[in-house]
Amino acid sequence: METILLYTTDQNKKRQITALLQELKIALKEITYADLKKPLATVVLPASGNGGKTDIAVPALPGASGTVTIPPMYVQPELLIMHGFSSDRMDEFLAAYKKRGIAPISLKAVVTPRNLTWSVYDLTQELSREHEAFTKRP
C-alpha cells in the first residue's frame, strides 16, 4: 500500500497534502514525536494484532546500542517519507504536489531495505546532513 509518512506543524500544508493524498488514493501516516525513537519499519508497517509487533524482524543498526538518544530541546524538522511507491507513482505524486503549489518539504526519503531499521530520528539526521551538503555545493 502506498503510504506517505509526514511530519509538519504547518496545518495549512498538512490540509493541502491530505487533500492531494485523498485525491491520489494514497494513505497518510502522521509521524509523532513518540515515533522518532522507533525503527522506521515499526512506524510504516502496520501491526498485525500480534501484541503491536510488525510482521518483520527489525535488526539493530550496526554499532547501535539499541536506544536512540534525542537531545533536549530537539525540534523535528518537516519530513516526508514515501513507502510502497512505484517510480511512476512517485513521479505522479511529486508532480501533483508541485503543480498544486504546496510549499516544499526539504527532507524527503523513500523507505528502502537499508533505512527500514533506522529510527525516524536517525533518518532525519542523515537527511539533514545530506541536504546541508547538497545546498552548500557551488
Reconstruct the topology from this structure.
Blueprint: E1 3-7, H1 11-24, E2 27-30, H2 40-44, E3 79-83, H3 87-99, E4 108-110, H4 120-136
Parallel strand pairs: 1-2, 3-4
Antiparallel strand pairs: 1-3
Give structural notes.
This protein has a four-stranded mixed beta sheet, with helices on one face. It has one domain: Macrophage Migration Inhibitory Factor (2-Layer Sandwich). With about 140 residues, the protein is α/β, with parallel strands linked by helices. It has helices at about 10-25, 40-45, 85-100, 120-135, and strands spanning about 5, 25-30, 80-85, 110. About 35% of the residues lie in helices and about 10% in strands.
What level of helicity do the residues show? 25-40%
Distance between the termini: 39 Å
Q: Tell me the strand order in the biggest sheet.
A: 2-1-3-4
The residue-averaged pLDDT reads: 85
Structural class: alpha/beta
H/E topology pattern:
EHEHEHEH
Low-confidence stretches: 47-65
Report the biggest beta sheet as strand number plus sense, adding barrel if it closes: 4 strands, mixed
In percent, how much strand structure appears in the residues?
5-15%
Radius of gyration: 15 Å
- What's the shape? globular
CATH class assignment: Alpha Beta
